[in-house]
Amino acid sequence: MLNITVPSDGPSQLTFTAFERFDLPTPPSGVDAEVNNDVILKFESEEEAINYAGQLEDLSSELNNKSSIENIAINDIILAIRNDEFVQSYLQNN
Predict the structure, then answer these.
(1) For residue 24, which of 82, 63, 79, 65 has the smallest C-alpha distance?
(2) Phi, psi dihedrals of residue 37, rounded to the nearest 5°
(3) Are 41 and 3 in contact (CB under 8 A)?
(4) Which pLDDT belongs to residue 63?
(5) Backbone torsions φ then ψ of 80, nearest 5 degrees
(6) What predicted TM-score, i.e. pTM, was given to this entire model?
């Protein structure tokens, strides 16, 4: 199980509550909240996390307003996935 935290101090200040309000797609293994309301994305593998980031990139490209808080939140999530040390290691080795 791979858990990736999307910190609430990013540009979008994304919280678990906002994640639910935006009705963003959830990872296949789900999403959870930390005590401070940070978003925790759950994945079975690094590959699953990368596929989810790709899904969010597709969603982002479909949004008309690139400066909307929803789009900024999507970018925060993608960045958290891409910066995860396990995802980076997986990408370097494959």
Answers:
(1) 63
(2) 80, 10
(3) yes
(4) 81
(5) -60, -40
(6) 0.91
State residue 66's pLDDT score: 76
The torsion region of residue 73 among left (phi > 0), alpha (psi -120 to 50) and beta comes to: alpha
Residue reference for tokens 């609430």: 8
Give the Cα-Cα-Cα angle 55, 76, 25 (nearest 5 degrees). 35
DSSP codes of every residue in 1-28: -EEEEE-TTSTT---HHHHHHHTPPPPT
pLDDT averaged over 10-residue windows placed end to end, the chain, 94 residues? 93 92 91 89 97 95 83 95 96 90
Report residue 88 as tokens: 């980076």
CA distance 76 to 59: 13
Reduced to 3 states (helix: H, G, I; strand: E, B; else coil), residue 41 is: strand
Distance, in Å, from the CA atom of 70 to the CA atom of 16, rounded to the nearest integer, reads 13
